[in-house]
Specification:
With 91 residues, this protein is of the alpha/beta class. Helices cover 18% and strands 25% of the residues. The chain has two helices and six strands. A three-stranded parallel β-sheet has the order 2-1-3.
């Protein structure tokens, strides 16, 4: 399992109080799991590691766009490679 929790979205008001512990605890359920939290919980990490895991768990914020559903997204940490907005279209 690859678990993401409480990505650093650059605004403390968007922190999810229990999401980091959630990701870390969920990752303990299955052997060979990996928990990525805060700065590590990035869109780049999702793209790099996601295909190598059978299960994904993401404890983060998301957006929904009814007019353009493929732009709905999970919000992850941004970096120099990716903007942190993992859209349905990218998935």
């Amino acid at each position: 399992m690859l678990a993401f929790g409480n990505p650093d979205l650059g605004d403390p008001q968007l922190d999810l109080k229990y999401a980091q512990a959630e990701a870390q605890n969920v990752a303990k359920v299955l052997p060979n799991s990996k928990a990525l939290v805060r700065r590590e919980a990035s869109e780049s990490a999702f793209k790099r590691y996601g295909e190598g895991f059978r299960y994904l768990h993401i404890a983060s914020h998301g957006t929904f766009n009814a007019d353009a559903p493929l732009t709905s997204a999970l919000l992850l940490t941004k970096d120099s490679t990716n903007d942190g907005t993992l859209t349905v279209g990218e998935l």
